[in-house]
Structures are given as C-alpha cells and as structure tokens.
C-alpha cells in the first residue's frame, strides 16, 4: 500500500528518515514482520514493543511507528513519531483493511455471560438458512464453517480488522462478534461499525481489571455508545429486559431499542417455557404474533440466549419462520451445558461457567430433573492470577449441588491451595473436597459418583488445555472422566 496514503490518517508529530513509497505489511509484533513492512511499537502490560525495533528492522521493517525516542539506522528504516501508538494502530488497521465492517452486516454481542452462545446461535441459524456467515469469539474465528484459533475473545484491533476483511472477501453477508469489556476498554473494536449491538447481562466478573461494577458496566456500554449517531444507517440495540443493567445500555445509544425477556415486559418475550432434559420449547410473543419455538439447548439461560438471537436476526430483516426453522435443529453450543454422549449410568455435562451467575444458571438447568435418590456433583475451578473476589461467591452458588469439588481452571502461577481455599471460604455446606490438580479432581468426581448421578464439569467448556505456569498442557475433563468411569463402570463412550 502507498505509505503516504496509509499515514494520512495519523496525526504525525515528526518523521525521521525517508519514507518508502510502499509498505508491504502492517504489524504490531516484531516476530511477524516481513520485508518492506511497517512495525508499530505498542506498550503492553508485559513488555514495551519499542524494545523490539532492532529485531523488526532486521526482519525487514522499513517504517517504524513509535511514541518514544528510539535509536534507528535511518538508512534502514524511517521512524514516524506519534503521541499514542495504540491510537495509531486503530486508525492504521482500518485504512489498511479498507474499512471492511462497512461491507457486511455486523452484529456485536456483549455481556458477562452468553456472548459465545448467542453469537454461535446467530451464526448457526444463518448458516442453516443458507447464508454465508462468520463468527468470532472465545471459541475462535469461524469463517463459514471453518474454525481458526484466536488469542482472545475479542482480538487486538489489527487482527480484528484483518479477520473482518477476510470474512468480507470470502463473501460473508454477516459477521457476529463477541465483544469483551477488555476489548472495548483497550480499543480493540476501533473502526468496527456494528449494525446491531446485543446486551445479554451484567454480573460479577473481571473486577480485577475493572475495579467496580460501575466501571465494568460503563465498559460494556461503549459498544452501544459506539453505534454512533448516523441515522441514515439503520442500527438497532437489542437488550435483555430481564437484566436491570439494560436501562444503562439503553441510555448509551440514540438508535432504536428492541428488548427481549422471559420475566420482564419485553417486545420479544418467551411464555409457556417448557424446560426438559433433552431440549426446550416456548411460545415467542413478538410484534409478528405468537410462534411456537422448539430447540435442543437446555436450561432457562438458553431461552434467554435464543431470544437475543431471534430478536437480532429479526432486526437484520429475517422473517420469524426463517429464524425458527434452523433454530429447531441447531446442536447445543460446544462446551455450554453440552451433554457427553455415553453408555454410562451417569449423566455428564461439560460447561464453561466461571462466574457466579453462570454457575447458578448451569445448576438450575439440571436440578429440577434430578431424582431424590441421586446426587448432583459439581466440579468448579477458577483461574490463577485473576479476579479473586469472585471465588467465594462462585462457591456459594455451587453449594446448590449435593457435592462440590473445588479445583483450578488455568492456575497459572498461583499455588493450587490459594485458589481452592479462597473458593472454599464461600461454601455453605460441608459436602465438598478441595483438589487443586484438575485431573485428580475429575477422577475424584467419578470415584464418588453412583449410578443415576449427574456430574457437571464447569469452567473448561470447549477448551482442551490447562495453563499451569505459562505452559498450556493438554487437558480434557470429558476424556479423563470417561477413562475413569470406564474403569469403574466397565462402559464408556457410545460405541466403545
Ligand atoms: C491484559 C491484556 O489484555 N493483555 C493483552 C495484551 O497483552 P500485553 O499487553 O501483555 O502484550 P505484550 O506481551 O506486553 O506485548 C506488547 C507488544 O509488544 C509486541 N511484542 C512482544 C514480544 C516480542 O517479541 N515482540 C513484539 O513485538 C506485542 O506484539 C505487542 O504488540 O495484548 C495482547 C495482544 O492483543 C492480548 O493477547 C493480551 O491478552 C491476554 C492474553 C489476556 O489474557 N487478556 C485477557 C485479560 C482478556 O483480554 N480477556 C478478554 C475477556 C474474556 C472474557 O470475557 O472472559 C478477551 O477478550 O479475551
Ligand atoms: N444468558 C446467560 N445467562 C447466564 N449464564 C449463561 C448465559 N448463557 C450461558 N451461560 C452460562 O455461562 C457459561 C458461558 O457461556 P458463554 O460462553 O456463552 O458466555 P460468554 O459470555 O461467551 O463467556 P466468556 O466471556 O467467558 O467467553 C455457559 O457455559 C453457561 O454456564
């Protein structure tokens, strides 16, 4: 790309050296620099990108964007000084990728819980309806059915723009993105024009980062504020009326609002909710009349997630029958109260709950179907070096299960005992064990299980690793449980 055209977007303070006519690539990672590229130095939480200018130039960078004085051989590369390199990369990424979000319908989903579920329900319905669709978030970047790994739920601004550009180039009509509060605060969504913004809920999480619930709510509100004020574009906010924070999100935007809910008054409301162990049905009451909805996902939280998806797709212009038909056959979302198919005399679910509210919702999804003679065993861990205040509150909610195993979920550098003892402080009954090693915790769940019991392995969901120190070790709750249960009950996976 022409260097001057690219740099025209930046408020430049000073240029040192001669700029090349063209740059071949744009990156913030010295390890990814290619010959003739532009390297933007970002001051991170861990390291300062200005440290890697030397290696970036060795790899062929011809332009460096910096905010601090740096020593550079100006025969090899030019330096463009700006006030803020993180602001600079937001602007550069949009120009580099040609404002790709303007070429598709963009749907953003934010909230403490339900982002992955709602965005994948939307994607699944669109694919089922024959549209080309992309979705990004905790599970990765799914481009019309092909999954690519991503580092974060909401990726850095350059990766985000490149991902959207790729989806647009591949002919996707819609891209749905999970938008985390970290992503919003750190400007990872800069340049992304959303047409529809969805709010699921706001409960205690990530307070190590945001400090207070008010800050956390404000961070989520940015998605709605950033819808902008251009009323020639038909944008919509889709808000969960069951969550009191929805009024705050409403205040953040001047665009029309559509509400959904199960308990509160809402424009898209679920009535006659029938929760079963193999699926859910409800009556959708909406401006288009009343419709019977059937789906394979379980738990009341799935009704809320389905309502969010239905409302957003209606706002996008789909007819209600075209939304409900694919929803009926949609498989449960990977790792979200996903039942492990086995021949065992046990019912096993893998779930991603790692906040108090999610734990409550996951337990509520199965408790009504548990017989009086059987137990609900709940395995839950929290991450090390992350929000510690949520630990006792999570355990308090987990106490609704008959037997709780407190363990770790990516302990990182924190000792096992520190995590499990802080969880244990919130337990309201004594039927629990603290087992920091997650593999041993999973095996223990099988050891104490009797025929007919239900086990929920919470926290890992779709993930197939456990981070100990800074190393990612392979880990699968389901695989360990099946191996252990196979030994105990002589059975395993269907077909084994
Ligand atoms: C705390 C935080 O937000 N950290 C994010 C941040 O990392 P960082 O600031 O530590 O980056 P850094 O390692 O210091 O690097 C700084 C710069 O130097 C560059 N560098 C670095 C090394 C090198 O050799 N050469 C080089 O050029 C890097 O490419 C970068 O540009 O920037 C990285 C790139 O964008 C992110 O991947 C990383 O997320 C980490 C992995 C993380 O755990 N983030 C969590 C808190 C997070 O963002 N979570 C949310 C919410 C999830 C949820 O809702 O549950 C998410 O969206 O994922
Ligand atoms: N609408 C909801 N309300 C409350 N809990 C929910 C809801 N949807 C899902 N959950 C619970 O939260 C867990 C995580 O769900 P999901 O991955 O969809 O949320 P998320 O917002 O993407 O989470 P994360 O930010 O951690 O990626 C699920 O496994 C389930 O236990």
Automatic annotation (TrEMBL):
Residues 335-461 form the Mur ligase C-terminal domain. Pfam families: Mur_ligase, Mur_ligase_C, Mur_ligase_M. ATP binds at residues 111-117. This is UDP-N-acetylmuramyl-tripeptide synthetase. Residues 109-312 form the Mur ligase central domain. One of its GO terms (molecular function) is UDP-N-acetylmuramoylalanyl-D-glutamate-2,6-diaminopimelate ligase activity. Keywords: ATP-binding, Cell cycle, Cell division, Cell shape, Cell wall biogenesis/degradation, Cytoplasm, Ligase, Magnesium, Nucleotide-binding, Peptidoglycan synthesis. Pathway: Cell wall biogenesis; peptidoglycan biosynthesis. Its EC number is 6.3.2.-. It is found in: Cytoplasm.
